[in-house]
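re: ur question from earlier - yeah i can do the single chain one, its not a big deal. heres the input i used so u can compare w yours
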Amino acid sequence: MRIIIERSNLLKSLAHVHRVVERRNTIPILSNVLLKTEGEGLRLKATDLDLEITESAPATGEQEGATTVPAHLLYDIVRKLPDGAEVSLATNAEGTQMTVSSGRSNFRLQCLPESDFPDITAGTLSHAFKLKAAELGRLIERTQFAISTEETRYYLNGIYLHTIEADGDLQLRAVATDGHRLARADQKAPAGSEGMPGIIIPRKTVGELQKLLGDSNDEAEISVELSDAKIRFTIGAVVMTSKLIDGTFPDYQRVIPQNNDKALTLDRQTFSAAVDRVSTISSERGRAVKLAVADSQLVLTVNSPDSGTATEELAVGYDSDEIEIGFNAKYLLDITNQLSGDETVFMLADPGSPTLIKDGGDDATLYVLMPMRV
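and the output i got, formated as tokens:
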């Protein structure tokens, strides 16, 4: 193959695909990116066998062909070339080496044949629908922080995406939980999503999707195709195909408290800043912050056996019985960082029961947080 491509186009495409490639691989071909000439363009593909990203970039083809080269190495080379440069990619007759040249720079990289490169065959994808980038981004942004990192409960290592009837409308719902907190976000279900299976999108796929959406226009239409085993996102020139987690997501509805009757209303930014300040004194071992509420007054307290004590008082809206309850400070900050309204409402029951947190600026999201002993 022989092709000439603008550095900026090649770098942008490599930036999207090379992230999928694990830096340490026991299978050499999985360290490589597939480069293939396609008409007036170059197609790049990378995979880790669970997730595959392909992207096409405009290029001038002089000789058709395909090969694979080390993904991170090629990305680093192109990244260090000067802006505005043209890059020439050419393989030798045997297909064992590829020359990357630009200006006076010349690199020879070892190749592996295209035939060795694995292909994640998506099979039949039973459901297809479209969402705006901002809508899909919001579902992910509001829930991804609560994904579990505990490998033993693998079915919690992703976002559960499904449709559900709520308030007389069909909603597309994203849920994530790690057993300590739960995040739920709804979006009006798009045409084509009716009857879709409930699926669990893996954590790595969620992370890559967030980055790709961050590079897109909020109004851009994202195409989503899925079955009960695979999902494919088409974002402009990028196509990402991923296996889904083969497991059953727990019945999260049972965790959401229905009878919490003590409403604590507070200013989100003031509260978040206060939690951040008092938690400075705590050690990583037990980042518990105690909330004592009475007579429209909230007292935040953190006790650290090593460092001392910190307290801060806030004026809040509260007219129920006095209550003292403890939460993990990091979890509180994670949730308040996702909220969009100025006002936040904590629906409390008792010191040992889960608390419901509502966003004053977004009725379509809610959070559940388990208390800590303090």
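The radius of gyration is 25 Å. not sure if urs matches, ping me
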